[in-house]
What we know:
This protein has 115 residues and is mainly β. 0% of the residues lie in helices and 54% in strands.
Amino acid sequence: VQLVESGGGLVQAGDSLRLSCSGSGWTSFGVRMAWFRQAPGKERELVASMRRSGDSTYYSDSVKGRFTISLGNAKNTVYLQMSSLKPEDTAVYYCAAGISVYDAWGQGTQVTVSS
């Protein structure tokens, strides 16, 4: 499985941004797709995830109500719609996929939120 992210950038607090992650090489709808983020000096954090079948959605408390994970029509692209962004959302965001473990990762995309 290969994953390629896009959509990061520099925004102001309160703005919205959508990240995209295009995948190829997977065949199972049991694959779980996720967005992680890692801020400088902090551990990587699971932000949101869902199964490629479209169910079993998870959000961390820090983004619940502000971020939405979704799949494209062909279920080969996963999006992270981020709204009401805060400076503490600044991080490198990574797309990941896997069945029992996340064993496929994208290269990461920087999101910077200025106050």
